Amino acid sequence: MFKRGCGLEFLLVFCGLELSWSCPRHCICYTGPSTVSCQSHNFLSVPEGIPPHSERIFLQNNKIHRLLRSHFSPTTVTLWIYSNNITYIEPSTFHGFSVLEELDLGDNRHLRSLDSETFRGLNRLHALHLYRCGLSVLPTDIFQGLRNLQYLYLQDNHLEFLQDDIFVDLHNLSHLFLHGNRLWSLHQNTFRGLGALDRLLLHHNRLQWVDRQAFHDLRRLTTLYLFNNSLTELSGECLSLLPALEYLRLNDNPWECDCKAMSLWDWLKKFRGSTSAVGCMAPADTAGKDLKQMRKEDFPNCSGSESLHQSNTWASTDKVSLKKEPPPPQPPHTRPHHPHHSGPYPSPPSPLPHPPTSINGEHAGSGGLPGVAPPQRSGGRSRNCTRQRAKGGKGRGLNDVHTLNEMTDKEYSSPDFGDGRGGKHDPTTPDGSTPRRKHKCTPRTSMGPPSGVQQPTDWAPPQWPGPLLCSLLAVLAPLTTELILR
Could you tell me where the Basic residues compositional bias lies (predicted)? Predict the structure, then answer.
């Protein structure tokens, strides 16, 4: 009988059936890939009984308040724990998670601080979500070693300052979301190392000072948003370090259109991409004017030397040497009051660039596309697959105000404006199939994008039809038993 029992077990495993199915109470589990969905059940802690080899774990929209090392398995590829009450993450919680590709800790408003070891060793991480976590400071080496990270979501926190070289290891980062914080200055090495960055969103901060060399490593940046800050001036030399720039937003800043603005004015005359209006607030005779539309005669008391150095620099942008530049001016010692933050954020005059959504176009709740390969260009140059060129943008007049509708790529949806359904959804069907997404880039892995996907419903493990199962057992059981008895 014992051998017959072993034969039956072998037969069931051979047919792809399991004798038992371990799944936490109130959760839904299925295979292909192995997934545990425990969302929206008011769990106060990570539920017990999560299968040890689960690849995808969905715990969003609960009330979990602590994450400890024993809670998850290193086989996890996708882990969503957004919209909980997490206040503490044990530093070793994710140690050994060498295959983790997406980690969403967003919308945990009381997290507030992270240990520098929290993400250490996550070598395959593609997307990290830390939006709306109440973070006011980041450890200097918090992102150390995350060389495959492509999407980093830090928007809507309380960050006031970014240390030099905090992103220096993020060589493949293409999207950096820093809007909705309290940043008031950008230094020379704030963004050092981000050579693959395509989109940098810094709007809705308190910026009043940007170092002339702040963007010196951003050679592939196509989109820069600086609107709704406290900038009164910005050096044209600073923007000349962005040779791939196509979309620039500078509106809703208190620009002073005097002699200090000549280098920016001169750069705007040469820029062939899409820009917003640059509304002047001072001096009085320029208030209400658009700096882009002003003429040289509107600067009667300026010698022109203010823009001479920048013009010479633009002619040889590729040869800029940081060692030869004079020391940058020091930032103000006092932090400014930001007039734009006294109430709700005003609606921007044109659409924002959106982070990637799912393959089916649903909202990603700050999701990324961890499967997108790093930018590559033909002929030895990198091609950034995340950007979409404006139609006819390069062939228009120098100071045309182009619409930014082209930027609202259907592959993107805004992470911070919500989708009305509480965030992300699970992409696969119970049989593990994933719809194909329309994208020109070749995915790095076979995993479909974990972001912006369909909500799991009453899913269960695949079930075999009763008559078919009985027929298989009737035919194969005698053969298996005979083989074992021999």
Answer: 384-394
Q: Contact at 8 Å (CB) between 87 and 112?
A: yes
Position 469 scores a pLDDT of 53
Note the Cα 379 to chain centre separation in Å: 28
User: At 139, which amino acid appears?
Assistant: P
* pLDDT band with cut points at 50, 70 and 90 for residue 459: very low
Written in H, E and C, the secondary structure of 195-237 is CCCCEEECCCCCCCEECCCCCCCCCCCCEEECCCCCCCCCCHH
- Whether 49 maps to a domain, the answer reads no
Distance of CA 177 to the CA centre of its chain: 6
Query: So what's the pLDDT on residue 61?
Result: 98
Cα separation, 397 vs 161, whole angstroms: 38
Q: Same structural domain for residues 382 and 469?
A: no
Provide the number of structural domains found in the chain: 2
Same domain assignment for residues 390 and 485: no
13-22 pLDDT tens trace: 344 444 345 8
Residue type at 443 in one-letter notation: P
Measured CA to CA, the distance from residue 263 to residue 245 in angstroms comes to: 17
The SS3 assignment for 132 reads: coil
321 and 469, same domain (yes or no): no
264 within domain boundaries: yes
For residue 302, the domain's CATH number is 3.80.10.10
Question: Does residue 94 sit within a domain?
Answer: no
Written as one letter, the residue type at 271 is F
Burial degree of 347 (CB within 10 A; 0-12, 13-18, 19+): exposed
Edge-to-edge order in the sheet of strand 35-37? 28-30, 35-37, 56-58, 78-80, 102-104, 127-129, 151-153, 175-177, 199-201, 223-225, 247-249, 274-275
- Does the pTM of the predicted model rise above 0.85? no
C-alpha to C-alpha distance for 355 and 350, rounded to whole angstroms: 16
- Please choose, from the candidates 127, 186, 130, the residue with its C-alpha nearest in 3D space to the C-alpha of residue 158: 130
Q: Is residue 172 within 8 Å of 149, Cβ to Cβ?
A: yes
153 SS3 class:
strand
How far apart CA 331 and CA 323 sit, in angstroms, is 20
> Which residues constitute the domain of residue 216?
186-331+372-410
Residue 10: inside a domain: yes
